[in-house]
Design brief:
- Helix content is 0%, strand content 51%.
- It is mainly beta and 123 residues long.
- A hairpin with a 4-residue loop joins strand 7 and strand 8.
- It is globular and about 40 Å long.
Length: 123
């Protein structure tokens, strides 16, 4: 049972990356999914969320630039990141769980975590 995050890399400011989060050993469709990120010296923060009904939520800093999606038939979720900025540099983690109400980014409510994928945006 695991989540596998991938797709990170080095990109110039203004560029794009697409992160993937593949689940194995369980049905991702039964869970809500969130992407978190942690930059050096900073606390982990929630970035984007999608529930099993495909409703989404984004923090203000990524609205209009990032798009979260899911393909339950492929047991995979995605984070399309456009117009990347140096401040987006972080390790990105995907998580699957069943947060309650608007607690989209309460880490303790997520059951499964990916191992993280590094995103580096150069200026």
């Amino acid at each position: 049972v695991q989540l596998q995050a991938s797709g990170g890399g080095l990109v110039q400011a203004g560029g794009s990356l697409r992160l993937s989060c593949a689940a194995s050993g369980f049905r991702l469709g039964f869970y809500d999914i969130a992407w978190f990120r942690q930059a050096p010296g900073r606390e982990r923060e929630g970035v984007s969320y999608i529930d099993s009904g495909h409703s989404t939520y984004y923090v203000d800093s990524v609205k209009g630039r990032f798009t979260i999606s899911r393909d339950d038939a492929r047991n995979t979720a995605y984070l399309q990141m456009n117009s990347l900025k140096p401040e987006d540099t972080a390790v990105y983690y995907c998580a699957a769980g069943r947060p309650v109400g608007s607690a989209y980014f309460t880490s303790s409510l997520y059951d499964y975590w990916g191992q993280g994928t590094q995103v580096t945006v150069s200026s």
